[in-house]
Amino acid sequence: MKRWWQRGILVLLLCGAVLLGWRLFVADRLHPANAAQRQAEAAKLRDPALVARGAYLATVGDCAACHTARGGRRYAGGRVLATPFGDLSTPNITPDPDTGIGRLRFADFWRALHQGRGRHGEPLYPVFSYTSFTRVTRDDAWAIFAYLKSLPPVRQPNREPALSFPYNVRSSLLAWRALYFRPGVYRPDPARSAEWNRGAYLVQGLGHCGECHTPRNAWGAMEEKRRLVGGSLPAQEWYAPGLGTQPGGGLAGWSGQDIVDLLKTGESSKGAAFGPMADVVRNSTQYMSDADLRAVATYLRALPARGPAPVPAAFARAAGHVQGGELYAQQCAACHGKQGEGVPGIYPPLDGNGAVTEPSAADAVRSVLLGGFAPTTVGDPRPYSMPPFAQQLSDDEVAAVVNYIRQSWSNRAGAVWPAEVGRLRHTPVD
Amino acid sequence: MRCLLALALLALQPAHAAAPAAVSGTPVPDTLQQRIAACTACHGIHGGGSSGSGFFPRLAGKPAAYLARQLADFQDGLRHYAPMEYTVRGLSPAYLREIADYFAAQQVPYARSPLPSLPARTLQRGEQLVMQGDPARGVPACSRCHGSQLTGVQPDIPGLVGLPCDYISAQLGAWRTHTRATVAPDCMAEVAGRLGPSDITAVAAWLSSRELPADMHAQPAGSVQPPLRCGVLAGNASGT
Q1: Neighbouring residues of A325: CB distance < 8 A, sequence distance ≥ 6
Q2: CA–CA dist A274, A16 (Å, integer)
Q3: Which of residues 74 through 133 in chain B touch A, CB cutoff 8 A?
Q4: What is the CATH class of B116-240?
Q5: For an interface test with A, which of B80, B92, B102 has the most A Cβ atoms less than 10 Å from its Cβ?
Q6: So where are chain B's domains?
Q7: What value does the CA radius of gyration of chain A take, rounded to a whole number of Å?
Q8: What is the pLDDT along chain A (430 residues), one digit of tens a residue?
């Protein structure tokens, strides 16, 4: 008697499983209305004008930067992004049906971009910058999706995230989202010009500039009240300068043309793109239309003034100032000028350069250690470069020359210790 | 084609012809040499490399396509050395090719580097591997690809003579540990993997002790028939 009941329960469970499976995997495909919708969507996505607009928008959003592994096929994913919470490998966003987005529909794409949720409603890790992409309009999302669907499919399976506990429990994201994520398309400010609004839309949304240039709190969320005032790149040891052009901003004194020049060519009379920003210029901003670049400049120029940067309480010229000055004269002055004035468009000025005087000395130290080229762009196909000094200068010497640069002329930034130089010397470059 | 592109880009440079001057100094020379200070600081103005250990290898006179390939491999993460990977990461193929062409065209006298003192049988083993290979291990003679004079073959294959012992030894080690790799099929990785434990020392010592031929230029294209399929030679149909 007891066995009969047991068998009955087993049969019921099996029936349930089959029904569930049918519902999940078969019903959706058999439903005729769904099939019609699917065809209509596919037809819309093939519109060449939409695809072309999507190609431009995907470039502005620099989707390929994260979704392409070094030396890998474009958009096929596999680039490993290091975060303080663990490593995540980016997914394949080519339209391969099994390993890419081939089976996704627009509703799935929109759910990811706008709500930060995966195909089955699971919350996505915010290393995918949906905290910014949520501002993107539905029309633009259609265009980007059409472009991605038009790419040649690449078969490349995705890799699971390698996060440490408790971040590997996806539901832990629900609390984070409740605190730090507000979905919502960008809403134009009627009190501002169309150009300002376009700039705000690009900077806050698709350009996701704040993901680097806005500081993050201990839980990795952008501090919205301190938008674009500059921040450290998690796990990368670069500092993204503030983007304000008013006094106290990271781009203080930059004209609109300087901003446009840097984004278009990698160089301006005020500074050059280096480190991760060189990649952004090379892969993304150099291809932006002049109108969009001007809109970005208009928006950044209108960011609020923050008052003159406070001179650090501990400001006192570091002990090695004389030694630093000698090193500067020997190694740096020939290009950057005796007074740190630079050569416009070739060698960035160091006097009054926000990337030099920003709160962290990491960028200045790493620039001295690594040297390097400004990025190759259409506007500057053969950029000048700076020699690396890692092999030539000791930690003491690098600290001395960086302190000299950060504390000379009009510069009044904090000092860096040789031990910090030693640490940055061994920081991976990618 | 890439050469043409580089020339075309050169031709498009008049806007930059008069380089701005530093406020306090002389005008910045509008030359490639000036532009590539990041390269020449270590490798020398004419790509002579650092004398002695060869820690910064000589670039002068190496085949241009070989040099361009190395730059692309650093960019793609196939060949690993962080400072090089950082330096080349943002540069276009056309610019990398122009830089490769610059160093390929440099003529710098070859300097002899210090030789390790090794037993005669090690050098004999080295000579045997370089000139005859080791059929038992499936190791072809180096000369099969790198040319009868071991000065390399245009446009993709580098010379092996005139290099410091430490440099050759380090590179063969890097091929084995895959910190130096290139596009598949990676024939040098295969060959290095087949060498016995003491063979790297033997090969490096014999090659670096060899008298330099009067003509150190790479041999003309097509003068060798490589015995392995090599991804780096795919464009030249010389792989079999």
Answers
A1: A404, A408
A2: 58
A3: 75-78, 82-83, 85-92, 94-95, 98
A4: mainly alpha
A5: B92
A6: 1-9+30-109, 116-240
A7: 25
A8: 456 556 666 555 565 555 555 554 554 555 556 889 999 999 999 999 999 999 999 999 999 999 999 999 999 999 999 888 889 999 999 999 999 999 999 999 999 999 999 999 999 999 999 999 999 999 999 999 999 999 999 999 999 888 888 888 888 899 999 999 999 999 999 999 999 999 999 999 999 999 999 999 988 899 989 999 999 987 789 999 999 999 889 999 999 999 999 999 999 999 999 999 999 999 999 999 999 999 999 999 999 987 665 666 555 777 889 999 999 999 999 999 999 999 998 999 999 999 999 999 999 999 999 999 999 999 999 999 999 999 999 999 999 999 999 999 999 999 999 999 999 999 988 7
Q: Which residues of B touch A376 (CB under 8 A)?
A: 90-92, 94-95
Nearest residue to A202 via CA among A272, A282, A300: A300
CATH architecture, domain defined by B1-9+30-109: Orthogonal Bundle (1.10)
C-alpha span between B179 and A271 (Å, rounded): 35
Domain A194-425 classified CATH 2.60.40.10?
no
Phi, psi of A274 (to 5 degrees): -145, 170
Q: Tell me the ipTM for this assembly.
A: 0.88
Read off φ and ψ for residue B211, nearest 5 degrees: -60, 145
Residues from chain A that touch B37, judged by Cβ atoms under 8 A, are: 335, 371, 384-387
CA angle B75, B80, B84 (to 5 degrees): 60
Total Cβ atoms within 10 A of residue B190: 16
Q: Which amino acid is at A392?
A: Q
Q: What tokens appear for A333 in the block?
A: 């002055």
Q: A381 and B92: CB-CB below 8 Å?
A: yes
- Residue A217, class by beta-carbon neighbours within 10 Å (0-12 exposed, 13-18 middle, 19+ buried)? exposed
